[in-house]
Specification:
Layout: E1 7-10, E2 13-18, E3 23-26, E4 30-31, E5 34-35, E6 38-42, E7 48-54, E8 59-62, E9 67-70, E10 80-85, E11 89-92, E12 95-100, E13 109-113, E14 117-120, E15 127-128, E16 131-132, E17 137-141, E18 146-149, E19 154-157, E20 161-166, E21 180-183, E22 187-193, E23 201-206, E24 209-211, E25 213-223, E26 230-234, E27 247-255, E28 258-259
Parallel strand pairs: 1-6, 2-7, 3-8, 6-9, 7-10, 8-11, 9-12, 10-13, 11-14, 12-17, 13-18, 14-19, 17-20, 18-21, 19-22, 20-23, 21-24, 22-25, 23-26, 25-27
Antiparallel strand pairs: 4-5, 15-16, 27-28
Length: about 260
């Protein structure tokens, strides 16, 4: 279809319930010639929301990314909200890009990992239909937009991944930083470097305000070579807590679960 390779959501809440020990897969869906699972339209009577409940030992495997638009310069503007709850694992491939067309910036896009785990695929980590999955990233637009990584959650990276809030969701590398990225604390980050080359960045953070807090556990899940690897990088003009002056209480580094300190 034109938008929404599998599902188009306008002014509604879609709840996707993956029950305990089950797997739900979105793969090979396309819109506008690109991989796409859901499209969320932030106009109309209420916010457009995608709520993923992923139960114990369950997997929501979305090799196709999400697209969407928050607000409108013609219709009533509404927020676009994506939330993950439950203890299971959400796998996400490709560039999930939520644009913002509200001229007053009174609405935004929100991506919340409230519980469990999120894995951002690495390019070529698995197949997607007749092709390969692309690097997973979440890219939002809007001055009040937010990416929230909740307390006691797990975020793993399989390639060159990113969390971005800029004025150009489709091209975040060149966009001006906006919004807020908030790690609530006590977060586990896992890095699979088996598809990385020395010097490449595993997780790029870009927003106007970036906050890290609590205990951060960093685990190197796999290595593919030797050299200097960049696990985490943020834009230099971000305000708030930076990596050298933050609310991080403890930083633990492990390799396949074994302490390196």
């Amino acid at each position: 279809g034109r938008d929404g390779g599998a599902v188009y959501n306008w002014a509604a809440t879609i709840t996707l319930d993956v029950t305990d020990n089950a797997t739900s897969t979105f793969s090979g869906n396309t819109a506008r010639g690109r991989a796409n699972s859901f499209h969320l339209s932030g106009t109309g009577a209420k916010d457009s929301e995608f709520l993923a409940y992923v139960g114990n030992d369950a997997v929501l495997d979305m090799k196709d990314p999400i697209s969407g638009v928050a607000g409108s310069d013609f219709f009533t503007s509404r927020n676009v909200i994506m939330q993950k709850v439950g203890n299971g694992l959400w796998k996400l491939g490709g560039l999930t890009a939520i644009l913002n067309e509200d001229p007053t910036n009174s609405v935004g896009a929100y991506f919340h990992l409230n519980a469990g785990a999120l894995h951002l695929y690495g390019a070529g980590e698995t197949t997607n239909g007749d092709s390969q999955v692309e690097d997973g990233a979440v890219s939002l637009e809007g001055t009040i937009s937010e990416i929230y990584i909740g307390a006691n959650t797990t975020l793993t990276m399989g390639g060159q991944n990113g969390l971005y809030i800029t004025d150009s969701a489709s091209s975040p590398a060149s966009g001006q930083a906006q919004g807020r990225i908030d790690f609530a604390g006590d977060t586990r980050m896992g890095f699979d470097l088996s598809r990385q080359s020395a010097g490449q960045t595993s997780l790029e953070l870009k927003a106007a305000d970036i906050h890290l807090g609590g205990t951060i556990d960093i685990d190197i899940l796999a290595m593919g070579g030797t050299g200097r690897y960049v696990l985490l990088h943020k834009n230099s003009d971000a305000t708030g807590d930076d990596f050298n002056n933050s609310n991080i209480d403890t930083l633990n580094l492990t390799y396949r679960g074994h302490s390196l300190t």
